[in-house]
């Protein structure tokens, strides 16, 4: 497989379709968030005091896994020495999957109950980051199986997804913890 | 499997989102199963005759959800058209209390009813609020002190909403009103012996606030005001 990889011509052209689909995701989320009349409520998860606390903790779980993503990605790229444990790839894949799945209920609640909000800088930034996060994640997922992409593709996309998610966490959970308090 | 992994991840996320959306649509359409009635728009809330009713036994035939006698429970809050003032309307069992203020010195309290999608409230000195509600938002017009505001505000959930504190501090009559918006910002005015001033921030969790050195507790507005 590595032989084949080396022979494939390196070109960023393979990114066109992932980027296009990612853009579709981002725009779709933004348009839905703006057009759909927020209901103010959505289904709650048992065991928490309210929908906000559910989201705060789901997002915090995702942010924690995102840190695992960052460290495991560095390890995969040999930043912590050339001896890369074989399980790092598996860890990276599954922590990423769980992080993504944790963000889905949060995003559904945001879009369904609250919508694209522009009350102030924080909600505007959060809304924008949210739309871009799922777009960037789509691009990353669709780029992964492609051969012959430039070497910077995955670090760039992974870094973008990580930065967006941490930005989302800072503008929501971190804000909640520091403004409302740490609650369950 | 390996090459399809990322695609499967995306599809799994999409499937999860679809399931959640479906559950949401089902529950909000049915209305009786609401775990968080505070933020409800009017239409679904009218199907919940009693908040304490257990969510079990979903209605089998709910073709006509609007029982005329059902009471409205909702809170809407937001900025009036053009900015400059903030309004909150809190409805408990059809009894509506509205508060409009600029966070500096202008404020007006109104009371009235919310039923059949219509808001009808009145306040001191001939102040009026008329409007409509439904679909998670309320729209209307407030007239007070010779001025007029129009608004379209969304349903909000705790800790957002309308808070009020009344007390006597060193023989001065203190009435405070606060609107807490979904972004966590607050707008409020405290009137001490009929002299309005910007209100200090309350702790939205406990309602605790210090006015002129006295510790007060702002309560979420539910039902008719005790002193207007």
Helices of chain B, by number, come to: 2
- Please mark out the parts of chain A with pLDDT under 50 across 5 or more consecutive residues, or reply none: 1-5
Q: What is the SS-derived class of chain A?
A: mainly alpha
* Quantity of strands of chain A, as a count: 0
How many distinct domains of chain B?
A: 2
Distance between the termini of chain A: 49 Å
- Average pLDDT confidence of chain A is 86
Largest sheet of chain A: none
Strand order of the largest sheet of chain B: 1-2-3-4-5-6-7-8
Strand content of chain A: under 5%
Kindly state the number of beta strands of chain B. 15
The portion of residues assigned to helices of chain B is 10-25%
Distance between the termini of chain B: 68 Å
Labels describing this entry:
heterodimer, A: 184 residues, mainly alpha, 6 helices, 0% strand, globular, disordered N terminus, B: 228 residues, mainly beta, 2 domains, eight-stranded antiparallel barrel, five-stranded antiparallel β-sheet, 15 strands, 43% strand
Write up this protein.
The complex is a heterodimer of chains A (184) and B (228). Chain A has 184 residues and is an all-alpha fold. Chain A has one domain (14-179). Chain A is built from 6 helices and no strands. In chain A, helix 2 packs antiparallel against helix 5. Chain A is globular, with a radius of gyration of 18 Å. Mean pLDDT of chain A is 86; it is low at 1-5. The model of chain B is unreliable at 31-69 (pLDDT under 50). In chain B, the strands form 3 sheets. An 8-stranded antiparallel β-barrel of chain B has the order 1-2-3-4-5-6-7-8. A 5-stranded antiparallel β-sheet of chain B has the order 12-11-10-9-15, with no helix packed on it. Chain B is built from 2 helices and 15 strands. Chain B has 2 domains: 1-30; 74-220, no CATH class. Chains A and B meet through helix 4 and helix 5 of A and helix 1 of B.
